[in-house]
Amino acid sequence: MPTPHNEAKAGEFAKVVLMPGDPLRAQWIVDTFLHDAKRVNNLRGINGYTGFTKNGKRISVMASGMGLPSIGIYSHELYDQYDVDLIIRVGTAGSYNPKVKVGDIVIAEGASTNSNWPAQFNLRGGTYSATADFDSLLAAVEVCKEKGKKFHVGNTLSSDIFYDVDPVFWKKWAELGVLAVEMEAYALYTNAARFGRRGLCILTMSDSFVAKEILSPEERQTGLVDMIEVAIATAEKFA
User: Fold this and answer.
1) Using CB atoms within 10 A of its CB, is residue 30 exposed (0-12), middle (13-18) or buried (19+)?
2) Catalytic site residues?
3) CA torsion sign, 186 to 50 to 196 to 133?
4) Does an H or E element contain 31, and which?
5) Positive or negative CA dihedral for 75, 139, 178, 122?
6) How many Å apart are CA 141 and CA 99, to the nearest integer?
7) Taking residues 214-228, what's their average pLDDT?
8) Do residues 153 and 230 touch, judged by C-beta distance below 8 A?
9) How far apart are CA 149 and CA 228, in angstroms?
């Protein structure tokens, strides 16, 4: 069962996995929100854990690293070799929309990309529309409403570029209604589709291209708590 990127044994991952980008954030989620957790992977410093929520639901948390190639590897192996049903990416993003403020939650209904990732599918010039699993998206929306969280649902951009040479490139995407930019959802959604599994991306807005704002460390911590609470409550519905 172990792979070149994962040393976990069969059955050590739960059916639902929360996937932040940062390995240290994975550790923080486990320490803050789970109990009786066991580390099941630490190859390349990519921490993976399985534990229990306060409601006794067994879930896993594993980092993805940054970018489509990295989450593409880890989500592929979790779906294909560890029989995971649902991966929920939890991360930060930059807002492209004046109504989407720093600290808000965005649930990625769809993911566009400027990456070459979709070329592997050889769609004869076509472009695949990567979308979230509807049932888990709906569950996350219901949780946000129940908990009174400020949230938005819509299209996002999974970009290969963090420091773009064109400082206003983002405006073209914003004109098409794209709410925010991150770097992983497109690969997660296409892998979920390929393996007939579920994928969902829930994001906290850490900065805004429109308002030129950025969360302070204290605000970022609060915002991440809100997002993880939503993600865990959503995960529990499928665990």
Assistant:
1) buried
2) 207
3) negative
4) helix 23-33
5) positive
6) 18
7) 82
8) no
9) 12
- Contacts (Cβ under 8 Å, ≥6 apart) of 132: 107, 108, 109, 110, 189, 199, 200, 201
Strand partners, 155: 110
CA 93 to chain centre: 10
Structural contact between residues 77 and 71, judged by C-beta atoms closer than 8 angstroms: no
How far apart CA 62 and CA 97 sit, in angstroms, is 30
What percent of the chain shows pLDDT beyond 70? 99
| pLDDT tier at 215, thresholds 50, 70, 90 | confident
Contact 105, 219 (CB under 8 A): no
What pLDDT was estimated at residue 74?
A: 97
Query: Quick one: CA torsion of 142, 67, 94, 136, rounded to 10 degrees?
Result: -10
> Per the structure block, which two tokens stand in for 108?
């990625």
By CB atoms closer than 10 A (0-12, 13-18, 19+), residue 193 is middle
Closest alpha carbon to 99 in 173, 40, 169, 178? 178
Q: Give kind and range of the element (H or E) at residue 225.
A: helix 217-236
The whole-number average pLDDT for the span 138-161 is 97
Summarize the confidence of residues 115-144 as an average pLDDT.
Answer: 95
Nearest Cα neighbor of 102 from 222, 215, 209 is 215
Closest by Cα among 147, 17, 150, 23 to 95: 150
Average pLDDT value for residue range 159-184: 96
CA distance 83 to 97: 37
